[in-house]
Design brief:
Radius of gyration: 20 Å
Largest sheet: none
CATH architecture: Up-down Bundle
Number of strands: 0
Number of domains: 1
Order of helices and strands: HHHHHHHH
Shape: globular
CATH class: Mainly Alpha
CATH topology: Four Helix Bundle (Hemerythrin (Met), subunit A)
Helix content: over 70%
Structural class: mainly alpha
């Protein structure tokens, strides 16, 4: 008599009952997705500029433009019904690359004010919350962004921009600007931690229900 594997039977049952995966087709070749891809290209340009120590004002401008495309591609996709599977995959990936990558490259520049532990907190929070979201949404739970996550993103963008500008010789000697940069960096870390705790507690409540 053949021996059946209950684990395999359970897995097959889950796969059979799951809704079909949405396809990536020609609809993915749309304006919002091209904007998202452009954000990835701008991220590479930004990282190269930070590594080479080129014009910090220009680097800050590249970052601001790249960050602005995040709101632009989402607005166009929702406004004109262009939300696609590829866009849902690429958009959060591009966001994590531009933010986490910027913090990572700034750590190598002591004058930026970004410390390794700050970058670690940003990395850890983004990786953990992304894992939670993927797991819960896979099981049909709504784990959309809350206000603390949105404020965290705004502060992270301000922190990266301020750190880039603070390395320019015209701003580095201005003490109030350096102080403002440091305040924004610390506020960013605090809100990033708070946001991570809030998302974790929210996930805990869902898993306990």
């Amino acid at each position: 008599m053949p021996v059946t594997d209950p684990t395999a039977e359970t897995t097959n049952a889950v796969i059979a009952s799951a809704p079909p995966l949405p396809r990536i087709d020609r609809r993915s070749l749309n304006v919002p997705n091209f904007i998202t891809l452009a954000r990835l290209v701008l991220a590479v340009v930004l990282f190269a500029m930070i590594s080479l120590g080129s014009s910090w004002i220009a680097a800050a401008a590249v970052f601001v433009i790249a960050a602005a495309t995040d709101a632009l591609d989402g607005f166009i996709a929702r406004r004109y019904g262009l939300v696609t599977t590829l866009g849902r995959i690429l958009d959060p990936f591009a966001d994590k690359i531009i933010i986490c990558g910027a913090f990572l490259f700034l750590v190598a520049k002591p004058e930026s004010g970004v410390n390794s532990w700050m970058a670690l907190i940003v990395f850890g929070r983004e990786m953990f919350v992304t894992s939670l979201r993927a797991f819960l949404e896979q099981h049909g739970r709504d784990f959309s962004a809350v206000w603390s996550g949105k404020i965290k993103m705004v502060l992270q963008c301000m922190a990266v921009t301020g750190s880039l500008l603070s390395m320019d010789s015209r701003f580095a000697a201005v003490s109030p600007l350096i102080l403002a940069r440091n305040i924004v960096l610390w506020a960013t870390v605090a809100v990033t931690v708070y946001s991570g705790v809030e998302y974790t507690y929210r996930a805990y409540r869902m898993l306990r229900a």
